[in-house]
Amino acid sequence: MNILEVKGLVVKLGEKIILNGVDMALQKNENYIMFGPNGSGKTTLINVIMGMQPYEVSGKIVFMGEDITEKTVDERAKLGISMEFQYPPEITGIRLSDLLKLCSGKGLKDDFNEEERDLIKAFKLSDFMDRNINVGFSGGERKRSELLQMIFLKPKLLLLDEPDSGVDVESLKLIASEVQRYIENSGSSALIVTHKGDILEYFKSEHACVLLDSKIYCFTDPKHIYEVIKRSGYDQCVSCEEKITEGWHNG
User: In terms of Cα–Cα distance, which of 200, 236, 231, 203 is closest to 217?
Assistant: First the structure.
């Protein structure tokens, strides 16, 4: 079963066409790693799936059988899509604990339950609850904070923009293991954009996708594909024998 389908997606910013006719399908309870050269539109793609502005979009985006092309960010979030930013912003005046309570549907005076406290502890953020969001946080602390917020929302589809960028090895291991655990326990799916492929050392992904010239190519061995990309480049990668399909992945 496909959790997400993108059909004929065209994305413009002003007069510039960033994506031109992208087709893609993601299956439920499976993880996808997405590679692509700089400027290929990887971040734009997940921004558009989330409903971020200010793009001009045509084509169709279907989530769990429902056409969400015209839905707002809030509406998509309520349906179960959540996105982690490459550079999580600082937010002054709001404590991390308050935001986490809002994410989980609690009131600000409510207490975290045992499961939530264990999750906060697992992300090593127990001492950050009274701090303003991301203010003075290191790169790894920011990424851990944002991933924790995502998991509190209990999304069905996680969109992660370079979670292995600007973080130390220990933070990357923690992020990867906790995302993996959440996906396995919840039956959710993840689409992870990366350049370096470091996360593949700690995160199980069934598929590698390559976005090149507005076409998406899917493969069954992410680590091997990453090695091909490093050794021979993207053009060689998309012509190799391990390719599943150009465009759609229907399992």
Answer: 236
